Amino acid sequence: METNKRKILVVDDNSDFVDFIRKILEDKDYKVSVAMDGKTAIEKASSDLPELVMLDLKLPDIPGEEVLKRVKEINKDIAVVVITGFGGEQIAVDLMRKGAIDFLSKPIEHEVLLASVKNALDIREAQIEDRQFDRYPSLESFFPFLAHEIRNPLHAISGALAIIQRRSDVKDELLGQSIKIINEEVQHLNEFVQECLNFVRPPNIVRFIEVEINEVISVVMNIISNMLEVESKKIKVVTEMDPHLPKIYANYEEIKQAFLNIVKNTFEAMPQGGVFTIKTSRKSSSPTHIEVAFIDNGMGIKKENMGRLFNPFFTTKLRGTGLGLAICRRIIVDRHSGKIYIHSEENKGTTVTVELPIGRRLGDTSGAR
Ligand SMILES: Nc1ncnc2c1ncn2[C@@H]1O[C@H](COP(=O)(O)OP(=O)(O)OP(=O)(O)O)[C@@H](O)[C@H]1O
Ligand SMILES: [Mg+2]
After folding, report:
1. What is the mean pLDDT of each run of 10 residues along the chain (369 residues)?
2. What residue owns the CA closest to ligand 1's atom 28?
3. What domain count does the chain have?
4. Residue 233 CB partners (closer than 8 Å, separation 6+)
5. Does the reported pTM lie above 0.70?
6. Are residues 267 and 180 in the same domain?
7. Which of 74, 80, 119, 146 has the most crowded CB, counting CB atoms within 10 A?
8. How many A from CA of 114 to the centre of ligand 1?
9. Are 355 and 289 in contact (CB under 8 A)?
């Protein structure tokens, strides 16, 4: 499986150091090539196309900064981690602004090296993924653009924070707490960006299979009780499942996602606790469809907001992205030819009703397996 190994080019003129790094990386199944000077590094970056270059800044022939620039010109998807000797941090930080993902100072510990390599490869993948969305024209091209512009500085922040964490005094509680807060906020933003990207992702029609809706609901309830543990304890869940509910042709993952978004909203609408009822049934008025009702007796929805619930980014929550229902509509209506309605009365509660066709959608050629 040689070809599947991830390729790393180590650039350093110190053969002991190169051997040290090579051993650690090869033990973890990376494919390592070596360049002892800048010229060879540039040649190998071009011929081997490594995913990652570990670049020592002090090379006998060409300055590290120039090598970084040339490597990025060869292929901007090559991730670069800069290695410095004692006192080289300032230059390294400067190079991070010019495209390096991280920097490591010698001597490098085994674990720190591996963590940095993994992190750099993950960031590279995320950056490539972001760019793939550039192909989609129209309104939706705004999201990938936004994602790209937010993710890049976020990666830089994460990288710089990891360095601060490594260097900082572990006993300093306030510092530790501050780092934790930054980490959490960065993660929150990353998740938000990911949700935006999921929103514009093209439909996955290949995944249409026979789906047991009652089963999807139990899975969703399981996930939600772990996700919203505190709220769960205060909410009584009543299920009224039709035991003869027919299976439907659907994209399991997408339906699960849609139901999760709906149930999450109901739980968030009952912060003081309440009763949540889920009913499944075959629609009597339209036997080709099944119906799922999600009923809560939570805070309800203000009349003036009813028309905006499905708009992307409409939220009344401090931490909401406002994409939950927009994604539901896309999955249920656009991708499954179903329907979704919301009835609500302020301070009384909300009922979300989803209708889904049982049979295969017209135009769906993926077949059921
Ligand atoms: N069951 C419900 N009870 C009360 N309000 C609801 C309910 N479901 C949705 N809403 C209202 O609809 C708005 C939009 O919901 P949506 O799921 O799209 O976004 P969100 O929940 O605010 O954020 P996100 O789902 O991205 O975390 C919510 O902010 C809330 O005001
Ligand atoms: Mg929501």
Report:
1. 80 94 95 96 94 93 93 92 79 80 87 91 82 54 72 84 82 86 87 76 67 95 88 94 93 90 96 96 86 97 95 88 89 91 96 91 42
2. 315
3. 2
4. none
5. no
6. no
7. 80
8. 41
9. yes
